[in-house]
Amino acid sequence: MRASAELALVVWVTALLASGSAAADFDKAALMQLLASVERASAQFVETRHSALLTAPLVSRGTLVYKRPDRLEKHVSFPFEARMVLERGQVTIDNPSRGRKMTLSIENAPGIAGLVESIRATRAGDLGALERFYKVDVGGSRGAWSLRLRPHDRELAQYVNAVTVQGAGARIERIEVVEASGDRSVMEIDEELK
User: Fold this and answer.
1) Fewest beta carbons less than 10 Å away: which of 39, 131, 171, 185?
2) Chain centroid, CA 179 distance in Å
3) With left for phi above 0 and alpha for psi between -120 and 50, is residue 142 left, alpha or beta?
4) Could you report the per-residue pLDDT of 60-76, keeping only the tens digit for each?
C-alpha cells in the first residue's frame, strides 16, 4: 500500500513539474514566433464600445483582413459602413456614410501609430514594434494565451491605458482597449488563418 502511494506521489510531482516547465517555455518570444507564422488571416468581428458619452454600448460588426508583412484592413458593415486600411505606414479611413475619406502617415501621428501597431504588430508577431510603444507581458500557454500591452510612450499614454489581446495557438480571439479616459472597446474575433 505504501509503495503505491509513493508511486502515485512521484507520478503527480513529475506531472506537475512537466506542466510547469511547458508553461514556462511559453513566453514573449514563443508567442511572437507563433503569430509570425501566419501569412494571411481573415475574421468576422463584433466590437462593443463602452463610453461615458453613450447611453448604451455601441456594437459594430464587420471583417478584418491581414496580409503579411503589414496590410491590415478593418471593414465595418453594421451599424454603418466604414473601412480602414493600414499598409506601408499609411492609414486610409473611408466613411461613405459621412462622405469622408482621408489618408495619413502614421509617423505623423504617434498616438494613432501606437494604437494601430498594437494590432498590426501583434498579428505580425513583431515584438520589436510592440516594444517601441509598450511594455509587453505574456501569460498563459500556447492553447490559451494573453498579451498585455501597457504604453511607455508618453504621447500614446494620453490615449491608451492598456491593450489586452487573447488567443489560442496562432489565432487572435479577443482584443480589449482601455483608453486613458476610462472608455473601452472589446472586439470578439472569429479568425481563419491561411
Assistant:
1) 39
2) 15
3) alpha
4) 999 999 999 889 999 99
